[in-house]
Write a structure and sequence with these properties.
There is one protein chain. By secondary structure, the protein is of the alpha+beta class. It is 19% helix and 22% strand. It has two domains: 177 residues, no CATH class; 185 residues, no CATH class. β10 and β11 form a beta hairpin. The longest helix has 15 residues. The chain starts with a strand and ends with a strand. The C terminus is likely disordered.
Length: 454
């Protein structure tokens, strides 16, 4: 990694092991930018007194560099050494401050907050590479086209709330109070759903740091880059919300004959996740996480599958349709799992294809669950009262459950499966609201044994 001397504009190399603070610039790439080779020619021409140096210094990109160095000098940053960094995301994350230069924002700090202002419409919020430049740095300072300070990103600033409204990124992620790892895959993909890149592959490559992924860059592979990114993500996570792409439609019926068009299991672009901005991942108490991987046949994952009765669909014929609930929910429908529709493969009942680029929400299987195994009844013999979880939980099966608790113990259940029979010392419970949550330890729970491909 190379740094510019803020006084002489000389380029120096990083030395591994030496880490000093540095400033970094976030900007949109223009048509008259100065690259490393231009600076080398500038130094050579300037040292010899040749006039070719003027062609570099008059470029708009060179003026941008000069202004950035001037601002860094005012903030106390000088030419220091730092260790080499392998990824751009780490460059921004390790910087002491990031200057966001918004070349299309003429307003001053007292006008940019208006809806419809040039700040709201700035192309900086539409570019793929600027997403990591927004999320990675610990400190961001925004400047208009005249290098006048618009504001600084802090949790209490109006600027932070405005940017959250523009980008649909929650404030706690913008201010680094919550690590990016706490956001589900679908939510993070939605942050890039409205952004564009000049090269098709870059819409995938600009997300590597956000997902903490390292993979080779193969320019020329086109849309395959995003598919490859998703495969790398699957190798490192159990978060199946990566399958929750499409339009969330609570009225969509995966068993309807209208859901006759099949589609790929993985999304084609981040734009497919645009409707997932309020999704959350349900982290279950069961430490046993189902296997989730890519194979030569497709994706292999263990999920609860619910089957529609065999039937004839117009223009389709006799087919088996299924509903799969994923481990995520939308705050628009907090009591329900987000799900997708599947259809049995032609060649093998263990293979599935996805029905339609639509998501739906279900609180229970439409017909009968298939297949499902419970090793033994769930009987809770001990309990510990804990703080209610921050995300809603829901039973995924409908066995009888008995709580052995004191007679004077008051309790209620939230998001319970409608078919479940919940009892306390023989008295059946009917209330489905919440007062107390119980954390049960050392019990045998259901195992999902229906690994299938789709």
């Amino acid at each position: 990694m190379r740094l510019l001397n803020t006084t002489t504009l000389e380029i120096k190399e990083f030395i591994e092991g030496q880490q000093e603070p540095y400033a970094i610039l976030s900007h949109r790439w223009g048509y008259d930018e100065v690259v490393f080779q231009d600076l080398k020619r500038y130094y050579e021409a300037a040292s010899q007194g040749l006039p070719t140096a003027d062609s570099v210094t008059t470029a708009e990109g060179f003026l941008k560099i000069q202004n950035c160095c001037k601002q860094a000098l005012e903030d106390g940053f000088r030419a220091e050494l730092s260790e080499a960094i392998n990824s751009m995301f780490r460059w921004y994350r390790n910087s002491a401050v990031c200057y966001v230069f918004m070349c299309d924002v003429p307003e001053t700090s007292d006008k940019f907050a208006d809806v419809g202002s040039s700040f709201y419409e700035s192309k900086w919020f539409t570019r793929g590479w600027t997403l990591q430049e927004l999320l990675a740095p610990s400190q961001l300072r925004f400047f208009n086209e005249r290098w006048e300070l618009l504001g600084q990103m802090t949790s209490r600033s109006d600027l932070c709330r405005i940017i959250s409204s523009i980008t649909r990124i929650p404030i706690n992620f913008l201010t680094k109070r919550t690590p990016l790892s706490q956001a589900c895959v679908a939510k993070k993909m939605s942050w890039a759903s409205r952004r564009k890149t000049t090269r098709e592959e870059d819409i995938a490559y600009c997300l590597l740091g956000i997902f903490d992924i390292s993979m080779p860059l193969l320019y020329g592979e086109g849309a395959k880059a995003f598919t490859r990114l998703q495969e790398y993500i699957i190798q490192q996570t159990y978060d199946n919300s990566i399958l929750a792409w499409g339009t969330l439609d609570p009225d969509f019926d995966p068993y309807s004959w209208r859901a006759a068009h099949t589609c790929d299991a993985l999304a084609h672009t981040p734009a497919d996740f645009e409707d997932c901005h309020d999704f959350e991942y349900l982290r279950h108490a069961n430490p046993e996480t189902p296997e989730f991987k890519t194979t030569n046949l497709g994706l292999q994952i263990s999920l609860p599958v619910h089957m529609h009765q065999d039937g004839f669909f117009p223009n389709v014929g006799y087919v088996n349709r299924y509903y799969v609930g994923l481990d995520c929910f939308s705050w628009r429908f907090p009591g329900f799992f987000v799900g997708i529709g599947l259809q049995a493969g032609v060649d093998n009942e263990s293979n599935f294809v996805r029905l339609s680029p639509h998501l739906t929400v279900k609180d229970r299987p439409r017909k009968r669950p298939w297949p499902r195994t419970i090793e033994r009844p769930l009987r809770f013999r001990s309990f510990t009262i804990v703080k209610p979880p921050t995300t809603p939980m829901k039973w995924r099966t409908s066995p009888d459950v008995v709580f052995n608790v004191p007679d004077d113990f008051t309790w209620k259940i939230q998001y319970c499966h409608p078919d479940a029979k919940i009892e306390r010392n023989g008295d059946q419970a009917t209330d489905n609201s919440l007062e107390i949550w119980m954390n049960v330890r050392g019990i045998q729970t259901q195992r999902e044994a229906n690994s299938r491909f789709f």
